[in-house]
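User: Please predict the structure of the protein below. I'd like the answer in structure-token form so I can feed it into my own downstream comparison script.

Assistant: Understood. Taking the following sequence of 150 residues as input:
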Amino acid sequence: MGLGEDARRIFANQKRLAESPPARNFTPWPDDLPKWDSLYYGCKETCARQAEVYAGYTAYTDYEIGRVIQNVEDMGKLDNTLIFNIVGDNGTSPEGSLSGTYNQLTAYNGVMNVPNPLQLLHYEDWGSDKTYPHMGVPWAWAFDTPFKWT
């Protein structure tokens, strides 16, 4: 499964769950983003790690929001409570450049393409307090489905 297939699956789930209007069309894959099949093995490994960390983050956030809702319900206040959950500002973002980065400060310092061997040195730490990662633009685009960009 590649990045485009993931975006299509996300979009189909949004329609199934009525989170996206049924008439909305899928945004076509941007020509300037590399496709999964064009990536070499080491790069695929790094890209997969980026998605794993993001999935872990969203699962953890979902769990903690569930705890808040459960506590409000246990207090008998859920019917009279508004709960706003704002995660981030614009969805996933392109600061990681095309390949992603283990530390966002690389892009801020003009390093827009961190070599994959360097990325792999941080593989185990990706998403921990030892990194400040950003996923690559292709993942950001896929996770922001159905929007046109990031």
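That's the full token string. The radius of gyration is 18 Å.
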